[in-house]
Write a sequence for this structure.
């Protein structure tokens, strides 16, 4: 018999991608790209992927990180690099070299965009002011973003250009300042309506190993590589607060700026490695992605199903039915009991379902647990079952049962125990299929 699992996963992926294309078309993505990636063999692939985003209707704006290039240029000219708390002290002598390095990185990006059929453009659209003297340290020609010319950038984006903003700002007298590319990328979220902000470097995301966890971060969503897939803004704040000595500088900087960007209006902020082929596409067009995302708007939820969800519920259950894990159900079967169903939703896509049926006298049946083919190892099923168990007291259900042929050990891990035919309510007992011989599992006293 043909193994249809790979086909189902491919179809699920295609549906997911189509959904995200429709969702993100016309939105603005701001990409901060570290210059350490410029010499990597996969850098042209990264730019090609970015070009594809623009070609399907996503607006793209790039802020180049230039720290490595500036360090190299200053070293060539015999000018030492000085930092205080991670912030560069830019002398008057160093400033022309800083500009030269930034222009070099920008021109590299422009040439790669042109090679991929995109029209990049650079300009001096950032007004800055001096960072001044902080804690007795004179930062000289290091500045901070004061204003961004939103109208010009909006016009360029609407005309199909990809603006590139090097981290150089000018004051009202025309004097240049070296500004943080991270600060610039984050500040754009205050001026533009940003759908996504990406920090693309060599950091693959944030892992949980060695991190302190609080009430909000006790259960975190991980991808297949063990990286935290998504954090809401409150979880990000808790993780940052509890791990000042455990997170390294890049991760702390990302979380601080992700929180600030979200509070400034960005919907989502992503930390993604540019060293992994296709990472930005995977991050954009899948619910788990490669890196770590901080978000403000609703990302995932478990909710009561509606009549509009019936086709997706049947779609997700079909593979389980064909394998004999679930009994067949018709659209009418599901529709009649739709109020019993919960669905797990990510970005408006239904990835899992389950039902809790009331059989009277305090008996509830956990049924129809199914998860989309691409998400069966991501904890979706566990969330659904726990949500159904959590509903039981409010519905007056004191004893839960389920019938299973293949998932006994998994349900054990969720608190179910072996039961007997006598544990079933009489109407269910009369319908028990002895030929199918399903295992009876129960939770009592819930």
């Amino acid at each position: 018999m043909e193994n249809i699992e790979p086909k189902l996963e491919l179809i699920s992926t295609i549906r997911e991608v189509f959904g995200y294309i429709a969702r993100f078309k016309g939105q603005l993505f701001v990409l901060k790209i570290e210059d350490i990636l410029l010499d990597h063999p996969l850098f042209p692939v990264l730019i090609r992927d970015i070009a594809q985003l623009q070609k399907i209707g996503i607006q793209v704006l790039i802020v180049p990180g230039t720290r490595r290039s500036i360090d190299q240029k200053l070293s060539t000219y015999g000018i030492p690099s000085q930092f205080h708390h991670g912030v560069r002290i830019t002398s008057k002598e160093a400033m022309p070299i800083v500009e030269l390095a930034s222009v070099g990185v920008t021109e590299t990006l422009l040439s790669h965009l042109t090679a991929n059929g995109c029209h990049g453009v650079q300009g001096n659209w950032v007004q800055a002011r001096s960072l001044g003297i902080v804690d007795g340290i004179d930062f000289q020609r290091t500045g901070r973003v004061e204003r961004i010319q939103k109208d010009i950038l909006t016009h360029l984006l609407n005309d199909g250009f990809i603006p590139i903003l090097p981290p150089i700002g000018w004051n009202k007298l025309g004097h240049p300042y070296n500004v943080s590319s991270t600060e610039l990328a984050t500040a754009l979220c205050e001026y533009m309506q940003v759908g996504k902000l990406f920090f693309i470097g060599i950091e693959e995301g944030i892992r949980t190993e060695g991190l302190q966890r609080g009430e909000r971060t006790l259960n975190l969503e991980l991808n297949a590589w063990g990286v935290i897939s998504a954090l809401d803004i409150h979880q990000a704040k808790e993780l940052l607060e509890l791990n000042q000595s455990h997170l390294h500088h890049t991760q702390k900087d990302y979380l601080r700026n992700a929180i600030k960007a979200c509070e400034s209006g960005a919907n989502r902020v992503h930390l993604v490695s540019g060293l992994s082929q296709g990472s930005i596409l995977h991050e954009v067009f899948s619910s788990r992605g490669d890196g770590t995302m901080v978000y403000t708007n609703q990302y995932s939820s478990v909710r009561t199903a509606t009549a509009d969800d019936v086709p997706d519920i049947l779609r997700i259950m079909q593979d389980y039915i064909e394998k004999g894990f679930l009994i067949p159900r018709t659209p009418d079967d599901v529709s009649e009991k739709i109020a019993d169903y919960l669905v797990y939703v990510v970005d408006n896509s239904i990835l899992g379902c389950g039902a809790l049926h009331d059989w009277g006298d305090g008996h509830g049946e956990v049924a129809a647990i199914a998860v989309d083919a691409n998400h069966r190892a991501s904890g979706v099923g566990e969330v659904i079952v726990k949500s159904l168990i959590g509903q039981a007291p409010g519905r007056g259900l004191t004893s839960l049962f389920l019938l299973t042929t293949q998932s006994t050990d998994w349900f054990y891990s969720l608190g179910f125990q072996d039961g007997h035919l006598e544990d079933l309510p009489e109407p269910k007992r009369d319908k028990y299929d002895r030929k199918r011989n399903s295992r009876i599992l129960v939770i009592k006293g819930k």
The longest strand covers residues 349-360. The chain has two domains: 9-297, 301-444. The chain has 14 helices and 24 strands. The two ends are 42 Å apart (CA to CA).
